[in-house]
Every structure is written in C-alpha cells, then in structure tokens.
Amino acid sequence: MNPKYFIADPKIFNLLGVSENEKYVIIRFVHWNATHDIGHKGIESTYKEKFVEVISKYAKVFISSEVPLPKSLESHKLNIPIDKMHDALAYASLFVGESGTMSSEAALLGTPALNISTSAVGLGSFEELEKRGLMFVIPDNQLALIKAIELITMKNAHDLFTSKLESIKLEYEDINEYLVNFFKKYKYE
Q1: Is 38's pLDDT higher than 70?
Q2: Which residue of 3, 33, 103, 172 is surrounded by the most CB atoms within 10 Å?
Q3: What is the pTM of this model?
Q4: Element housing 65 (H / E)
C-alpha cells in the first residue's frame, strides 16, 4: 500500500497485547457459503486446530473468522475494531487464510501471505502476487502447513517481503493520481 494513503499505526501492538518485536500470525477462516464458493474449499475442519497448534509454537496466533470457532480456538479470537485490521495485517509476521481479499491485503502490506483455497488457484491478481513472491496459494492443507512453518521461521521475512513490495511499487502508476488526473482532464462541462 502506498504510504501516501496508509501508514500502519503501531498502537495496534497495545490492542493486540503483544510487544513490537513479538511474532504474531493472523489466521482467517471464511464461511464458504457464497455463490462463487460453490465447489471450492479451504482449510479442512480437521486442519484448523492443527494450524493453530503448530503455528503457536513459533508465534502468537490470532483468528479472524466468519464462522463460530470451536471452544478450543476461542482464546485465539481476534478482538480489535474492524478499522484496525490493516494495522494488524501490516505488522503481522504471517497471514494464513482462506480469504482472497485478506491474503491480497496482507501481501500488499508487505506481510508474507499464504492463501489456502481452491478458489484462488489461477486467478490473475493472485498469480501476479505469487509470481512476485508476495503470496503463496496452496490449496493442499498439509503442504500449506509446511509452507507456513517455513515462512514463520524465516529470518527477516517482513523486511524481505517489504523490499519485494517496494520494487513493485516503482513499476506501477499511482491509480489514485491517475484517476484524479483523468477526471480533471475529461471533466463534464
């Protein structure tokens, strides 16, 4: 994201109850009941607890979920105001989830993003983020868990991913400036 439009607020650490140098991971579960979800799947129910259990060995885990969480995962529920989600994503050590939107947002904030979903395979924006090494789309739960461990244990991952993101920003025009200039040039008279 362009710092002209968004700068992550470090006050999020207090809201999350973590220190600035403490690793944390955001895991996102979706409902899978939208029309575009028909025939697709993400993290299998048997793997939800496994992801939390394994990743918790390396970092604090917060869960954002569209579906009710089992009692065993309730203690990981992310309880922050909705308008602070991008701040939380920006400082996270890793994003793991079924949500294409949140996976993309995390990647564009420089946070390593792992999308576990059959619906994200082969889609243009996800392919571009994968090609750039900012997102990983892995619908196989076991392989995704292995990748999650690799990413959370990687040294200086956030710096590496932020650096990749900065190089991409140089290639693209600021869409906001483009649209403002376009409408100024072709304004209705």
Answers
A1: no
A2: 103
A3: 0.87
A4: strand 60-65
